[in-house]
Design a protein that fits this description.
The protein is mainly α. 77% of the residues lie in helices and 0% in strands. It has 8 helices and no strands.
Amino acid sequence: MTQDFSKLIQQMMEQGTQMARMMNPATESFNPSAFEKFLPTLSKDMMEMWFGKTYNREGLDARTRLLVTIAALTVLGAQTEPQLRLAIRHALQAGATQREVAETIFQMSMFGGIPAMNRALEIAQGVFAEQAGNEDSAGDDA
């Protein structure tokens, strides 16, 4: 790891810690579910800025980064439900299809096990249903 890259990683860690403290000064009692309700999705431009350009301008786009995040959260298992729901919503907002999300989760069965995959697919189905309900209710307002 180069010195510049080490500095970048250290800056990211410091920024993450600072952001967590700003959200909740008592970070040991940080509740990810509450954060999910506070910020259910980011705009596509914001996700691209944070996930696609900020960390690696020449690397992965936001959609791909979010699919990779879904894969990692799937393998970590049930304790990541709020983060997984948020990552799925963001991935869809960034242009991923429901099929791509499901295939990403399915692929993780060999790494995280069938129970982890099943739980992640249940969570994804819930997000898909929420989005379908939101689209239906948005049409009712028109």
